[in-house]
């Protein structure tokens, strides 16, 4: 009891101004939280066939329930959705050993995740082989599309980013300036213009008659864009590796590639795992931009559902649900990033 | 070559030895890269030229001098459908700059507020700021902007049922209405005069320290006096002729200043999203300044406020500026998300309307990317200059 009181005095009422602040914040909570809970839980309707059956002063979660599958799979055919589910399960299977500490040959797990898994998942989800019916990418949508976009962009931008980061630190002027130009160009323009360029301009720059799938075009744009940011993150790591490491490797007779690949990069990448995860979080959030160029990711599917005349005025429910999904995924990734950061801090402190 | 070096090189023949020389390898790599770049550029340029000629199109910026034929709903200066594409570009550019400046101001204010809240000794305040930060930075910015527009601004009451603050500010589905300043005819020269007196006053105030004794005492009051006189002349001459209040007439408001819901939604989305990142930067900077600095300042007899103003903030500022620059650049780039809520900025007008009307994809996208690149480079140059200005002058 006394300890509770002490805690309260120290943390909430240490001075007059502090006490006043506490009261102000509690007042704010009193104004905001009860109506919010009323709307989201107590007055909410879970089961309804139309909007009219929903309570007027509460959330109409029936709308979300009815479109639940749409939000996750887009227009992916219902009979084939198990393939997406299986890909998701496989993603977890490949992801866990790559993220865990103390796994032997962890780099094998990372290479499998970035190199092998995408092929399996692509075959599984697109089909056309092993008797799986072909599902065109125009039917892909919802949260599945956000995940596909960010996964492929990461898998592509990691190696590209490493090459660009090494190139930016190269002694060779042409290589260095080419890499600086590439990185600064993508970092200087909004992602939206890059996506738009891929959608509108890419066909103009390809030989006549060659068409590239819309999803693939978006993937190329996202990969190039992310690679520029990834390169800067990795460059930070390269700068964090003491110069003596490189000199020692060179004096042992290792050439440029083996020095970088066996000595410098493994240390550099370990240093910037949190930065890489933050880039992944940013990318995951930014995949919603494909909505503007005509792909139907989660945000696009929600936007479209809100136009349904039977369910007008569901904006708050729709966006709250989408925000909750994004929050859970991105927050999970940031927690992991912070865990790695703390471990790094401990390791370097020693 | 000495005998020892010859032995190290091993019995390799001339060509092999040449290829294993790092300088030669370097030149080879650069040659390969140069050929690849030239080949890629030629390939794409050739394709583009062929595709354009097949469509009967041409390449050039001449279209900027053609009649645009569309209106822009929100503009800072005169524009109509009979104006040129070039003028539409200026209007859109001004709108991008406007939202960027507003969002940078909003994000900086909110960000410092959040940063200070996170440093508070009050558990409730600290954790409120922490929760807001986590919620905002883990949801997509585009979703937030669309939420503010569709779920907030578009569900506001009609003009007749406006939410209001006094009889001056009204909030409804058509936007925010507030009193507008009515300027006198001589507003432009008067403003220039006011600015000149303020600058001169400030300059005099700064140079006063270069003088000593009675000269300083004479010079010191001139600066403030000049500024006060300038401000007095500005207001007393009636440069601000009055305020124009918005009034409900029929189903809509007349008069006053209207801020469109698109602008409000985009401003909220940009400011709040960036504010949580700025808050983190501020918190990190203040926490990064060692506790010893505070203790030393306090033991020298500085008050808490003086410690903050003279010791903590000058040092924190130096840590803050580089990451803050990239946040500001992010705001400018993200202003293109205005396209999702139909705020007529560069991307919405040029990437949308102009591209569809003129079909000049390469020119339009080239102009857009060039403008964003220039804005970004200019902003980072400005912030770098400011950074050098506040950096420690080590000797």
Indicate the CATH topology of the largest domain in chain A.
MetI-like fold
Number of helices of chain A: 15
Give the total of beta strands of chain B: 8
Tell me the radius of gyration of chain A: 25 Å
Helical fraction of chain A equals over 70%
> CATH homologous superfamily of the largest domain in chain A?
MetI-like
State mean pLDDT of chain B (0 to 100 scale).
Answer: 82
Order of helices and strands of chain A: HHHHHHHHHHHHHHH
Distance between the termini of chain B: 47 Å
Broad CATH class of the largest domain in chain A:
Mainly Alpha
| Biggest sheet record of chain A | none
Taking the alpha carbons of the first and last residues of chain A, their distance comes to 40 Å
Secondary structure class of chain A reads mainly alpha
Q: How much of the residues of chain B is beta strand, in percent?
A: 5-15%
Observed structural traits:
heterodimer; A: 350 residues; mainly alpha; MetI-like fold; 2 domains; B: 395 residues; alpha+beta; 4-stranded antiparallel β-sheet; two-stranded antiparallel sheet; 14 helices; globular
Could you explain the architecture of this structure?
The complex is a heterodimer of chains A (about 350) and B (about 400). Chain A has helices at about 1-10, 15-40, 60-65, 70-75, 80-100, 105-125, 140-170, 175-190, 190-205, 215-240, 245-250, 255-270, 275-285, 300-305, 315-350. Chain A is mainly α. Chain A folds into two domains: about 1-35, no CATH class; about 135-350, MetI-like fold (Orthogonal Bundle), CATH 1.10.3720.10. In chain A, helix 5 (about 80-100) runs antiparallel to helix 6, helix 7 (about 140-170) runs antiparallel to helix 8 (about 175-190) and helix 14 runs antiparallel to helix 15 (about 315-350). Chain B has about 400 residues and is an alpha+beta fold. Chain B has two domains: about 5-55, no CATH class; about 85-180 and about 245-390, MetI-like (MetI-like fold), CATH 1.10.3720. In chain B, strand 6 and strand 7 form a beta hairpin. Chain B is globular and about 80 Å long. The two termini of chain B are about 45 Å apart. The model of chain B has no long low-confidence stretch (mean pLDDT about 80). The chains are: A mainly alpha (about 350), B alpha+beta (about 400).
């Amino acid at each position: 009891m006394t300890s509770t009181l002490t805690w309260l005095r120290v943390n909430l009422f240490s001075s007059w101004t502090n006490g006043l602040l506490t009261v102000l914040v509690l007042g704010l909570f009193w104004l905001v939280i009860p109506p919010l809970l009323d709307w989201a839980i107590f007055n909410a309707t879970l089961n309804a066939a139309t909007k009219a059956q929903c309570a007027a002063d509460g959330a109409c979660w029936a709308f979300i329930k009815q479109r639940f599958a749409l939000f996750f799979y887009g227009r992916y055919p219902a009979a084939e959705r198990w393939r997406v589910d299986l890909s998701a399960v496989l993603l977890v299977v490949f992801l866990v050993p790559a993220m865990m500490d103390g796994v032997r040959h962890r780099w094998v797990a990372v290479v499998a995740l970035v190199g092998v898994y995408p092929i399996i998942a692509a075959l599984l989800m697109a089909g056309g082989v092993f008797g799986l019916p072909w599902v065109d990418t125009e039917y892909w949508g919802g949260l599945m599309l956000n995940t596909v976009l960010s996964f492929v962009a990461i898998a592509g931008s990691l190696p590209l980013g490493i090459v660009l980061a090494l190139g930016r630190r190269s002694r060779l002027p042409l290589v260095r300036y080419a890499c600086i130009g590439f990185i600064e160009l993508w970092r200087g323009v909004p992602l939206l213009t890059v996506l738009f360029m891929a959608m509108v301009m890419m066909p103009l720059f390809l030989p006549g008659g060659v068409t590239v799938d819309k999803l693939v075009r978006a993937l190329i744009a996202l990969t190039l864009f992310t690679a520029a940011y990834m390169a800067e993150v990795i460059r930070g790591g390269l700068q964090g590796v003491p110069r003596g490491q490189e000199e020692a490797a060179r004096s042992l007779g290792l050439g440029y590639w083996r020095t970088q690949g066996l000595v410098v990069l493994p240390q550099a990448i370990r240093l910037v795992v949190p930065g890489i995860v933050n880039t992944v979080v940013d990318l995951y959030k930014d995949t919603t931009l494909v909505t503007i160029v005509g792909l139907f990711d989660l945000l696009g599917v929600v936007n479209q559902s809100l136009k349904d005349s039977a369910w007008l005025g569901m904006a708050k429910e729709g966006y709250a649900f989408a925000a909750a999904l994004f929050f859970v995924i991105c927050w999970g990734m940031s927690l992991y990033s912070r865990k790695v950061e703390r471990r790094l801090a401990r390791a370097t402190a020693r | 070559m000495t005998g020892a070096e010859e032995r190290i090189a091993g019995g390799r023949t001339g060509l092999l030895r040449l290829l294993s020389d790092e300088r030669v390898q370097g030149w080879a790599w650069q040659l390969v890269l140069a050929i690849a770049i030239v080949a890629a550029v030629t390939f794409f340029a050739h394709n583009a030229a062929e595709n354009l000629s097949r469509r009967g199109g041409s390449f050039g910026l001449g279209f900027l001098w053609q009649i645009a034929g569309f209106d822009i709903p929100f503009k800072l200066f005169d524009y109509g459908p009979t104006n040129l594409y070039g003028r539409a570009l200026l209007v859109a550019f001004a709108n991008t700059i406007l939202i960027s400046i507003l969002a940078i101001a909003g994000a900086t204010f909110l960000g410092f507020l959040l940063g200070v809240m996170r440093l508070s000794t009050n558990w409730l305040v600290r954790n409120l700021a922490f929760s807001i930060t986590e919620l905002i930075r883990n949801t997509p910015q585009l979703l937030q902007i669309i939420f503010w527009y569709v779920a907030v601004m578009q569900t506001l009451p009609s003009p007749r049922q406006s939410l209001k603050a006094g009889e001056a500010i009204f909030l409804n589905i058509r936007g925010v209405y507030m009193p507008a300043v009515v300027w006198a005819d001589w507003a432009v020269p008067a403003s220039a005069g006011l600015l000149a007196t303020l600058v001169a006053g400030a300059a005099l105030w700064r140079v006063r320290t270069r003088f000593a004794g009675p000269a300083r005492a004479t010079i010191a009051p001139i600066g403030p006096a000049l500024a006060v006189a300038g401000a007095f002349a500005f207001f007393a001459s009636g440069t601000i002729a009055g305020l124009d209040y918005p009034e409900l007439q029929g189903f809509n408001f007349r008069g006053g200043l209207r801020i469109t819901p698109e602008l409000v939604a985009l401003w909220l989305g940009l400011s709040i999203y960036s504010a949580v990142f700025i808050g983190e930067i501020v918190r990190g900077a203040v926490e990064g300044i060692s506790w010893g600095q505070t203790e030393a300042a306090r033991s020298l007899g500085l008050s808490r406020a003086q410690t903050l103003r003279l010791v903590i903030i000058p040092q924190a500022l130096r840590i803050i500026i580089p990451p803050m620059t990239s946040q500001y650049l992010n705001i400018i780039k993200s202003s293109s998300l205005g396209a999702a809520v139909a705020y007529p900025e560069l991307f919405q007008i040029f990437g949308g309307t102009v591209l569809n009307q003129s079909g000049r994809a390469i020119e339009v996208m080239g102009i857009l990317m060039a403008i964003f690149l220039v804005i970004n480079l200019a902003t980072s140059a400005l912030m770098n200059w400011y950074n050098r200005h506040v950096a420690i002058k080590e000797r």
